[in-house]
Amino acid sequence: MSLKAPDFGKVAVLLGGRSAEREVSLMSGRGVLEALRSRGVDAHAFDPAERDISDLRREGFQRCFIALHGRFGEDGTVQGALELMGIAYTGSGVMASSISIDKVTTKRIWLADGLPTPKYILLRRGAFDRKQVMAVPDDLGLPVIVKPAREGSSIGVVKVEDYSGMAGAVEQAAQLDADVLCEQFIRGDEVTCPVLGTGDNARALPVIRIVAPEGNYDYQNKYFTDTTQYLVPCGLPAGEEAAIQAMVLQAYRVLGCRGWGRLDVMIDAASRKPYLLEINTSPGMTSHSLVPMSARAAGISYEDLCLEVLRTANLDHDPQPGGAA
User: What chemistry does it catalyse, as a reaction equation (predicted)?
Assistant: First the structure.
């Protein structure tokens, strides 16, 4: 039987946190908090950057809606703390979260499962020199995408157009992460596809096609401008949307993700082949965020989406979604 608002008990919406995505997380969390309260859930804001996380158990919280993004929220650390306290939480478990935050590890697993992702070169801080940096375009071509291996929201991402930009882009990314990911640039359509559920019950929501100013879908254009276009229905050729949905479901399942997530994909303009870029296991829930937009196209309101995600709150050792409380 589907859980009703009183059945959730006292719910903490985890927001803010200590990552570079703190401001986005605050926006996400406030939206989720308001939505849950509007549906009668006893929900409270909780910022792990300002409070000891052990207060969750001391104050009798029974579930957590994780609206944290990036490190210390989406990387398995908070999930591990909640596992130790026995407090059910939304989204993927400890291992799936820690794998998914790492773009290189994610790529390796996808490739091992036969899933397409752009070619890449990993540069580890202190283990590469200028000659190796300047040789990256020789292997991957130009433009090349340079980004920290474990950041989100396009933070630290640079599209390098020529050799002269390589050193600065790598240096910028290295300030945010010990590992720098250099990735083949796929020219074509940028799309994203949310997933709800777990295992065989997981389902893909409508694909969104993203049209950013000059093709630059950066941090500013994601959250703070209204010039980026989000097309849903996506308007892709017949069959492409269904193929992308099938691919992202496989990519989501092979990582062991649960509850919800969102996968970003590039479609090569010439071959129409889709390439997986990354997965977000705690997607944004702001006014500009894509999971609520896709859900709305599927007939799911923001409030119902928040409730559906909260119903899947779980612990790693409880195999039944929503079974922990």
Answer: 2 D-alanine + ATP = D-alanyl-D-alanine + ADP + phosphate + H(+)
Q: Are 303 and 37 in contact (CB under 8 A)?
A: no
**153-158-164 Cα angle (round to 5):** 170
- Same domain, residue pair 108 and 227: yes
Residue 4 has what DSSP assignment? P
End-to-end CA distance of the chain: 15
Structure tokens at 111: 């490739």
Q: For residue 317, tell me if it sits in a domain.
A: no
**pLDDT tens sequence across 193-245:** 999 999 999 999 999 999 987 655 455 544 455 778 999 999 998 799 999 99
CA-angle at 281, arms to 275 and 283, nearest 5°: 95
Number of domains in the chain: 3
Q: Exposure pattern of 46-76 as b/e (b: 16+ CB <10 Å)? A: bbbeeeebeebeeeebbbbbbbbbbbbbbbb
The owner of tokens 């799911």 is 300
Question: Does any domain span residue 125?
Answer: yes
Has 278 been labeled as part of a binding site?
yes
The tens digit of pLDDT for each residue in 163-188 reads 999 999 999 999 999 899 999 999 99
One domain, residues 199 and 264:
yes
CATH label of the domain that carries residue 221: 3.30.470.20
Q: 314 and 321 in contact (C-beta within 8 Å)? A: yes
Q: What is the dihedral of CA 222, 228, 232, 233, to 10 degrees?
A: -140
Q: What angle do CA 10, 153, 168 make, to 5 degrees?
A: 145
Give per-residue pLDDT as tens, 37-75: 999 999 999 999 999 999 999 999 999 999 999 989 999
